[in-house]
Amino acid sequence: MRRFIPLTAAALLAAMPAAAQDLAAGVAAVRDKALTDGTAWDVVESLTTEVGARPVGSPAMERARDWGVAKLKELGFQNVHVESFTTRAWSRGAESAEVVGPWPQKLVILGLGNSASTPPGGITAPIALFKSYQEMLDQPPGSLKGKIAVVTQRMGRTQDGSSYGAVGIQRFMGAAEAARRGAVGYLIRSISTDDTRLPHTGGGADAGIPAAALSTPDAELLEHMVARGKPVTVHLDMTSSVNPAAPAWNVVGEIPGREKPDEVIVIGGHLDSWDPGTGAIDDGSGVAIMTAAAKLAGQAGPPRRTIRVVMWGSEEQGGSSRAYAAAHKDEAGKIVVAGESDSGPWRIWSVSLPKPGANHPAMKAFRASLPPLETAVSPAPPRFGGSDIEGLMAMGVPVVDFNTDASRYFDLHHSADDTLDKIDPAQLAQNVAVWAGFVYAVANSDVDFRAAAPK
Ligand SMILES: [Zn+2]
C-alpha cells in the first residue's frame, strides 16, 4: 500500500518552476509584510482627521482632492495627478420632523440625496404607513394623495451585504413610487441593521417630493402609533440645494511598470462620502486599503506592469465611474484588471477571480497565499467589482470582487457613526494583505484575465 503523503505548502512550492516559486515567495512576503504594516491605518486616520466628511460639491471635497494628491506624493507614488469632471451634487440644508398628533413627538431624520425641499414652513400631512415596500407598490395611482408615505421594512444582517440591494430599493426608488401615487412626502426606516437613534442617509430618487430616512427607533415609534388606529399626522420641514454641474475629481497615482508600463492594474476606493460621519468606513478605508496595497506590492522594487491607485471623486451621488471610463476608453484594452474596495475595512472572507487566468502561476501563487488569512476562493466568478469600475467593466475590463465581512457594515453606513474608531486595525491589515498579494502577483506576471479559460 502506498503511504499517504500530505502535500505541504513547501512541497507544492518545490513542484513549481523557479519563476513561479519566486512569484509565490514574493506574494507570501508581501502578505506577511502587510499584516504588520500601518500604512492603511495612517491613511484613513489622516483623511478622517484632516478632512472629515466629504460630500461631492462641498468645499471639503476640494480639501480631499488636495489631501489625496499630497498623500500619494508623500507615499512615493509617481504621475500623481487630478482628472476633473462635473457632476450633479445635492447638498443638505436644515431638516426637522415631528409627529403633530395624536401624540406630539420629535422624530430623528436625515434627508435622502435628491430629496426636494418642502415649501417654506414645511408640510403637515397624515401618514400612510407600510411595513413592506411591496405593500406601498400595491397601492393604486392617486391613492396616497395628500399623504406622507412611510415604509418601515426592516433590513436583515448578512455577511455578504446582500440585503442592501434587496431592502435598499425602498431608499433608491421609493420617493418616485410614492410621488406617482400622489404622496406629498416620503419617509423610510433607515437602510440599517443598527438600533441607535442615528438615521442613515444615502441617494434617493429625484421625485420632486421631500424624502428622508427615519432612525430605526423612530420608524418603530410610528408603527406603534399607527397600530392604535388613530390617524397620525407628521410635520416635515426640509431644505436642500442642487448644483447641476459641481466640480469633481478623480485623484490618481502610479507605480510605473519596468517592463510593460502600458499594462495597468487599476485599484482604488472613493474619496467622496456622505455628510453625517467622517467617511471612515465608506469609503476612507477603501482608499486606505488600496493605497497601502499598491505601496506594499511595489515596495520590493518596480513591478513589471504599472500599478495605479485611483481615488474616485463622486461615487455616492454618481459620476466618477462614467468620467473615469470616458477618460480612459482608449486605454481600456490595456487595463489588465480593475478592483475597488468599497465594502468596509473588515476581513476579506472570500475572493472572486475571473475564470480566465485562474490557472496561471500568478493566480496559483495568490491562491496559495490565502489559507493563512482564512480567505476562501469563491467558485463564482465576479459579477460586480464596485460602482466606480462599472464603466470600465462595461468596456470589457476584467474585474475582481473581494468580499469583506459586511456583518457590521450597515450598522454604520451613511450615518453619523461612520467614524475611525469603528475600524479594527487587525482586520484592516488582513484586508490589505489580500489585496497586496493579488496586486503583486498580477503586476509581476503576464496573467491575462481576458484569455480563453484553459480546458
Ligand atoms: Zn461607498
What does it look like?
By secondary structure, the protein is of the alpha/beta class. It has 2 domains: 9-88 and 245-443, 3-Layer(aba) Sandwich (Aminopeptidase), CATH 3.40.630.10; 103-231, Glucose Oxidase, domain 1, CATH 3.50.30.30. Helices cover 33% and strands 24% of the residues. It has helices at residues 9-14, 18-35, 39-50, 59-74, 133-137, 163-172, 174-180, 216-227, 280-298, 320-327, 361-368, 390-394, 409-412, 425-443, and strands spanning 78-101, 105-107, 109-111, 123-130, 148-151, 185-189, 211-214, 233-255, 260-270, 305-312, 335-340, 348-352, 376-377, 401-404. Strands 1, 2, 3, 4, 5, 6, 7, 8, 9, 10 and 11 form an 11-stranded mixed β-sheet that branches. A 3-stranded mixed β-sheet has the order 13-12-14, with helices on one face. A hairpin with a 3-residue loop joins β1 and β2 (105-107). It is elongated and about 75 Å long. Zinc ion binds next to α9.
Looking at CATH, the homologous superfamily of the largest domain is Zn peptidases
Structural classification: alpha/beta
Largest sheet: 11 strands, mixed
- The domain count comes to 2
Contiguous low-pLDDT stretches (5 residues minimum) are 1-9
List keywords for this structure.
about 35% helix; 11-stranded mixed sheet; alpha/beta; disordered N terminus; Aminopeptidase; Glucose Oxidase, domain 1; 14 helices; 2 domains; binds zinc ion; about 450 residues
